[in-house]
Design goal:
34% strand, single chain, 181 residues
Length: 181
């Protein structure tokens, strides 16, 4: 009987807490939440996020309490997602499209945020039929967004995507650093 009374007492206390006696899930803290879909590479601002109060116990440890104004998504965020430090740090790429370039191609040591020109060297024949090579620029000031062991990911414009993809297939690619990130 005493056990039933104790359980009833706890239930009443919980309901009373929910009814206005204070937050029943613990202390609330501000956290930034996406209010619309945010793609990787897109800046976060007051137009696509808002600050809400959430119980500390329910938040990931790296939840972001406030934006400084320079954050960029490194991964897609969806409506209602809590913004975490792990999802920030992307490179602003605007309306550019990402494409991976094999790392076996000639390139300097690159880091995310660097800007590179994409050059392709193709085998051609001159007027006499003698085999030679031609080097063409297929993208200007592409943004390096990631570097892995076997590839470098760059963001190019819509107009540059097909020439860059074709160059990867047909020739020898060189990424020339034009502006460090």
């Amino acid at each position: 009987m005493a056990g039933a009374a104790a359980i009833t007492g706890l239930a009443v206390a919980l309901v009373a807490g929910m009814a206005g006696g204070g937050p029943s899930l613990g202390e609330l803290t501000p956290v930034v939440v996406a209010i619309q879909t945010i793609e990787a590479g897109q800046p976060l601002d007051e137009g696509n996020t808002e600050t809400r109060q959430y119980p500390v116990q329910m938040l990931p440890p790296d939840a972001v309490p406030v934006l400084s104004g320079v954050e960029v998504a490194s991964a897609a965020l969806h409506v209602g997602d809590v913004v975490t430090a792990a999802r920030l740090g992307g490179i602003p790429i605007g309306d550019r499209i990402e494409v991976a370039v094999p790392a076996h191609t000639a390139m300097p040591l690159l880091a995310p945020g660097d800007r590179v020109d994409v050059l392709v060297t193709l085998p051609i024949s001159d007027e006499t039929g003698t085999p030679t090579q031609a080097t063409l620029t297929v993208a200007n000031s592409a943004v390096v967004t990631a570097r892995a062991e076997h590839a470098v990911t760059i963001a190019v414009t819509d107009q540059e995507l097909l020439p860059v993809a074709s160059a990867v297939i047909q020739g020898s690619i060189t990424l020339a650093l034009v502006q460090p990130g």
